Amino acid sequence: MNWRAFLTLVLVAGAAISGWALWSQRSPAAAAPEAGGLPDYVLNEFQLVVLDEQGRESFTLEAPKLARDPGVRTMEIETPVFTIPDGDAKDRTVGAWVVRSQTGWISAAGDELRLRGDVRADSQGASGPVAMRTQELNVFPETNRATSAVEVTVTEPGFILAGHSLEADLAVGNIRLQDPKARYESIPR
C-alpha cells in the first residue's frame, strides 16, 4: 500500500469522526422555544390597555420597559404602574386601584399579575384613601381579587391592619389576613 492511499484513508476517517462528533453535540432544533430566551418584542416607555373577553378594560399598564417571552408568552416588566378600574359592581366601596412595584409579570392570558418588590396599592374608599403595602402581590383583574403570602399592611384613615396570607376582594374592599393585628388611631381634624 502506498503512502498516498494510507493518508487519504486517515483523512477520510478523521473527517468522519469529526462530523459524527459535531452531529452528536449539536443543539436541539428550535421548533419549540424555551422560556427565558430572548424576548420576541420589547416595549419602552409605553402605556398599554388590556381588555377582557367582553371588551371591557381589565387593566392599564404604564412602565419604562416590557419584554415578552416568546416560548411561554408571558411578560416581564420594570417598575410597572397598573391601574385596575373599579368596574360596575353595585356593592363597590372602593374606587380604581393604582398598584406600583419594582418588577411585574403578566400571564400569557393576561388574567394574572405578579408584582414584586415594594408593592404599593392605593385606592379611594368611602371613608378616604386605602393603601396596601407588601413585598409580593398577585392580582387577578378579571375577578377583582388579590393575594399575597407575605406580610401585608393595610391603612385607612384612623385604622391600620397588618398580617399575612392576604385574600382581598378589590371591588368591595373585603380583606382577609391571617394573624391580623389592628390598630386604631385618631384622625387629625
TrEMBL record:
InterPro entries found in the cross-reference section: LipoPS_assembly_LptC-rel, LPS_export_LptC, LptC
Alphabetical UniProt keywords: Cell inner membrane, Cell membrane, Membrane, Transmembrane, Transmembrane helix
Keyword Ubl conjugation in record: no
Protein name in the entry: LPS export ABC transporter periplasmic protein LptC
Source organism per UniProt: Novilysobacter selenitireducens
Encoding gene, per UniProt annotation: lptC
